[in-house]
Predict the structure.
Amino acid sequence: MSDTPAPSAAALPPGADPALAGYGIDTVALHAGRHPERFHGVVNPPVYHASTFIFETVEQLIDTRHERAGGAFEQFTYGREGTPTTRALEDAVSTLEGGYRAVVTSCGLGAIAASLTAFLSAGDHLLIIDSVYGPARAFCDEFLIRFGVEVTYFDPLIGAGIRELFQPNTKVVYLESPCSLTFEVVDVPAIAAACRERGITTIMDNTWASPLCFRPLDHGVDVSLHAATKYISGHSDLMLGIAVCTEPAFIPVKKTASGSGYCGGPDDVYMALRGLRTLPIRMKRHQETATHVARWLQQRPEVARVMYPALSDDPGHALWKRDFHGASGLFGAVLQPCSPAQLAAMLDHMELFRMGYSWGGYESLVVPTWPATLRTATEWKDPGPALRLHAGLEDPDDLIRDLEKGFARLAAAA
């Protein structure tokens, strides 16, 4: 991991175990959200399959309704609002990121949609990073615009210059760092500080870093989003999203997620909790393997450049080293110009780097990407095709041999 000091775990959300204060992040990842004493000594919180919760009295039912209407969401009222299993995951991830409370949703895009619509109304203006995750861009272009929200995309490297794009009706700035597909590192503290001056809400997709490698709320962000489908799960077998919130941001996001029906299934929540317990050791291995493979790719004649901020010669390395506590296994590579047939010859027969969407699981993945088709505020100038690679938990030398065979097929197809 990075030589940046690890984040502390002193900021605990309501209901979290105060005994965790002061422990290292790896320890907190193993123990946050766990209360064996409440469940007959069972190590893991049990799975609650529940739609209905029983109230013993009319007074209790009415009090719970008032409590929910007031926005506390402390009591369990209905399955869509969450169960004790849901709360355990929310508390664990919120503890890791130093948030007030978190909101579990049905998928990462659900967390994105709930967070954006929590703070935007017709007539408002949204500033969103030009390198944003493709489905988030589609949600803005196909839904938010249709409902009267003005959307402007901005250069990922704008930093404090974001002030020049503020309008009187700007309500939200949406970030992602490193950027999807192209891996630029964003000056999150500078942008968040500019937003705070104007009372603008900042939302950031933090899936790449996981809660272990970056804590957006420590840098002024209001809502930190995760596709728990990816690193938190770690096994490519569930769909889940999480929004970690500051205290002012929690109620709007929770009410919007609940009112929109963005609830996580109980078994997926349980598996995400289980995956979270091995996140520290997995993230270390992902970074080690990605760094090893990325450095090897830099020496290949077929590769024009590698995009991975953990590399010392990456343009975003200084910002990454300043703000992050480590890196994940996801990175990019721009190939030298080649034909579609050559690219297909390389990728169609990979044995370990299989083609598939998503990432963050134990297995390695690769997909071709075309960043130029997803940019409107900035221009993508690399002439060659690009790859997005996820370094899984396989032996790094086996992954290199797989890529080496792929390059041989690419050359033979010329």
Observations:
- The longest helix spans residues 279-298.
- The CA atoms of residues 209 and 328 lie 6 Å apart.
